[in-house]
Amino acid sequence: MQKVTLDGIKVVDVHAHPFREQNEPESPVDFLRKLSLSVIPEMFTNIEDVEKFQPYPGTNMWIQILFRHMAKYLNCEQDLTSIVEARNKKAKKFSNYTKELFTDVNLEGLIMDFGYPQPPIDRNDFQQMSGARIWEIHRIEPVMVELGKQNLPFSEFIGKYRDNLRQALQKEGVVGLKTIIAYRSGLEIGEKDEQAAEAAYKEFLLNDKAPAKAMRDYCFHIAMEECTSADKFMHIHTGIGDGEVVLSKASPGFLLDTFRKSEYKDTKVHLVHGGYPWMEEAAFIVSILPNVYMDISLQNPFTGHGVERIISQVLELAPFDKVMYGSDAFTVPEMNWLGVKLFKECFERVLNDWVEKDYMDAGQARYIGEMILYKNFENIYKVKL
Ligand SMILES: [Zn+2]
């Protein structure tokens, strides 16, 4: 039986964040902190005195797999101190190191959310540093926060908000908007109610992280409208995220009623993170709505060995042409690198299993690999690499 390999296939990562060039050496504990989804710095404090074979307190499978791959790549011992020492040596020339890692895994392009970290990193700077092609989405929440500081009357706030989105969508390289409403008031979006929105606006002015649900829902609808008229993509954070997420209202199923509205039938939507751990809901939604797509970011690589199960589960229902590769990498280039490595290695196992079961031949399996790694991106976003 012919083995399927995804070696050499180019990759576009449809959801990641930029990171800053860092020429100063990382300390082992800081490096560890950068690998975690926790936004709580105390998550990793005690990394001294671990015994041989004992995992560092607080580390999980994805970090384990990363260390394993990094030790092999850097040709060093598999303990945190040796790994960080070896990577620091290479990372002295940070841009070269980033380019080397991206090239090693054929990572050629990324759609990036410059909304994190704040203050934002410049797109051209990141493009130059990484050597990859960069597209951008424009996050709506920082716009709301900035305008909120001006203490405008609600109608003026909304007017300026809409102008801002419209102008951003005209910019070269901007493929859509993004919302993290799942981190604030959740995905159960209400009707567009101006009066309720205006009342909630007062809550928002006092605290820009407050739920202020009716106002956020109102702003969400405006973003959907602007994406529709610009024929660009609405990226919606679904599923788990960092420590702030409203977990009980983060599953993609909450969005279905909104998507079914006749005014949004042509709106292109990109479900970021594929709703993990509710990825079957996302897979179902993209299987019934022609303009809704999903990616496998965050769950890849942060669930470690789980990536294999997730790819298999998502493709139980999701059409092959609706799913795209992603990483949600957000701090160090090793995240982007392992994202691709782990994804390809897990996907190969899934594809080989399908070939073995005679559901398809190896040629078709590799083609499906190419679709999810970059071809779907090209078709859906109408760009050629
Ligand atoms: Zn993200």
Automatic annotation (TrEMBL):
GO MF term (any one): hydrolase activity
Domain Amidohydrolase-related: 222-340
InterPro entries linked: Amidohydro-rel (IPR006680), Metal_Hydrolase (IPR032466)
SUPFAM superfamilies linked: Metallo-dependent hydrolases
Keywords, in A-Z order: Hydrolase
Protein name: Amidohydrolase
Organism: Pseudobacillus wudalianchiensis
